[in-house]
Design a protein that fits this description.
This protein is mostly helical. The chain has a single domain, classed as Orthogonal Bundle (434 Repressor (Amino-terminal Domain)). It is 76% helix and 0% strand. The protein is built from four helices and no strands.
């Protein structure tokens, strides 16, 4: 995981989730998550770790999709080159 710290709201927006969806993902009640997001309470250790893991999985999925894009592009280029021969 990166050294950059995300607030629960930053993470939720980056993952494009609603508060309800994020609460479910980190194993909290909706009201508990809302309080964590606005800073009234702190998320539990497991909830904070879950948040970190969600962000890591999202980061890996983005990286994989970029790798897949470049692989497919290279395959298309190779196919065009073979057609010209």
């Amino acid at each position: 995981m990166t050294d950059q710290k995300y607030t629960p709201r930053d993470a939720r927006l980056a993952l494009q989730l609603t508060q309800t969806e994020m609460a479910n993902q980190v194993g909290m009640s909706e009201s508990g998550y809302r309080k964590w997001e606005i800073g009234t309470t702190e998320g539990s250790g497991p909830a904070r770790r879950c948040l970190e893991l969600l962000l890591e999985v999202d980061r890996l999925e983005v990286a994989a999709s970029k790798t897949d894009y470049w692989r497919k592009r290279a395959e298309k280029t190779e196919a065009k080159r073979k057609k010209k021969k």
